[in-house]
Amino acid sequence: KAGVTQTPRYLIKTRGQQVTLSCSPISGHRSVSWYQQTPGQGLQFLFEYFSETQRNKGNFPGRFSGRQFSNSRSEMNVSTLELGDSALYLCASSLALTRTGTGELFFGEGSRLTVL
Amino acid sequence: GENVEQHPSTLSVQEGDSAVIKCTYSDSASNYFPWYKQELGKGPQLIIDIRSNVGEKKDQRIAVTLNKTAKHFSLHITETQPEDSAVYFCAATGNQFYFGTGTSLTVIP
Q: What backbone torsions phi and psi does residue A85 show, to the nearest 5 degrees?
């Protein structure tokens, strides 16, 4: 069974640009959540999607957005990039929506974004 | 919202010794407490979890304890091996996962 796949794995952008990251969840998983990982900050929750709807959102500015497609694949977008957006962005899939049935999160290897 | 604190941030132990990582949480509504291990260049992977109706759970060399009254839970690794070297994250979960800031564990051969 294939794991969670994230693309691209590495990317470099400059301030003011925008970026789109992609996540393909494990087959059959309907929940996809995104996290930002920075040194010393751990994993910060961005948002969770289930059945193409955003079900929960973390404390990030509106420059961070996402969507989920009918096949459960998800994308997240960051517009007007800032230096502080440099981080590892992790996608995780799960069988159930977090608030209705907490279970294991399966993480991808992440997309490492560097903003210059 | 929930606030999860994790200590220590770094931990070095000799191979064969035990390692203990501690986390506290603030929201009494949190009911699921997983621990994830992240190896270099990889995404976090679940190693053990515990639900709020259980006080302790063990899986071979790994155990987790939960004190709901004090709102803290701990990860115990016994007979540590070099392959246990990684970053470990605790989490408290209600409507979303709230992760601690991580503990970098180094097992010295």
A: -85, -5
